[in-house]
Fold this sequence. Notes:
By secondary structure, this protein is of the alpha/beta class. Helix content is 39%, strand content 19%. The strands form 3 sheets. It has a 5-stranded mixed beta sheet. A 5-stranded mixed beta sheet has the order 8-7-9-5-10. Strands 6-11-12 form a 3-stranded mixed beta sheet. 43% of the residues are buried.
Amino acid sequence: MMKYAAAAAALTTAIIATGFACAQDPKNVSGSIEVDGSSTVYPLTTAIDEDFRAAGSKVKVNVGSSGTGGGFKRFATGDIDISNASRPIKKEEAEAAKKAGVEFIEIPVAYDGLSIVVNKKNTFIDYITMDDLRMIFRAGNPAKSWKDVRPNWPDQPIKIFSPGTDSGTFDYFKEEVVGKEGKIRSDLEASEDDNVLVSGVAGNEFAIGFFGYSYYVANKDKIRIVKVDAGKGAIEPTPQTIEDGTYAPFSRPLFIYVNKKSAARPEVKAFVDFYLKNVSGLTEELGFVKLPDDILGRASKNWAASKTGTQYLNAAGEKVSGPLSKVYN
């Protein structure tokens, strides 16, 4: 019991240090909040909203899922208060926001593993390499049948299900597989709704698709996940391999971006306070991977201090890459 008491005391200390002790009480606020963006982050934010209302909040939180790119387009014009994102904000998106006078607070909320999935009846794929993925997804003479990828795979047409081009998951996948300047083939079924992608893969024996790990966890009875070999052996995405980065290159952090002007409103402050205080308890339940306590602590301090701007672009506007432990301050 002493062990658990010490742990609880340490957690209380951490909560006080990050500013949660003076968090806005959900019961004392009302109003509305507009949220849009990543379909990957959507179930996490909606779950937070459900718990927020269960805690007595009368705030109406309208959560859309137009994709990370779609969310940032609305965010940059001041049309929404919070943008869910499955990747860091891009240079051109940050510049558009700045031009419109929108300052933002960047907050990581969880880890995710972009997951490659196939039909349950697919028994010929044990693992897939990055070269295999390039052959399947790149534009310009891509593989038409599975036999084109590997000679021992069946001579059956490949049916591809992909997030739409406004999706941060699509952006992340494209850059890792075909490069920033590369292009993804256009003859695929695309949707910003990950549930549509799940149904597509589940309904076609020779289908392949990709989306966030949480959607796989929620639908593992319908689809099968594929190990990825990026040069260091075949690795399956799991909470451990996603958090420690061994599931490379598809481990990634997820974010919410908060308009600084909106953050001054009591209902937005209360919602984000509640989000940061409760997100760790929801991540694993929903199939995400929770942030380490030190990263969540940094995020909470940055939120309390209204620290604006992104950690993923340097002073020259160049992209900064790396694990949260090294990039996010």
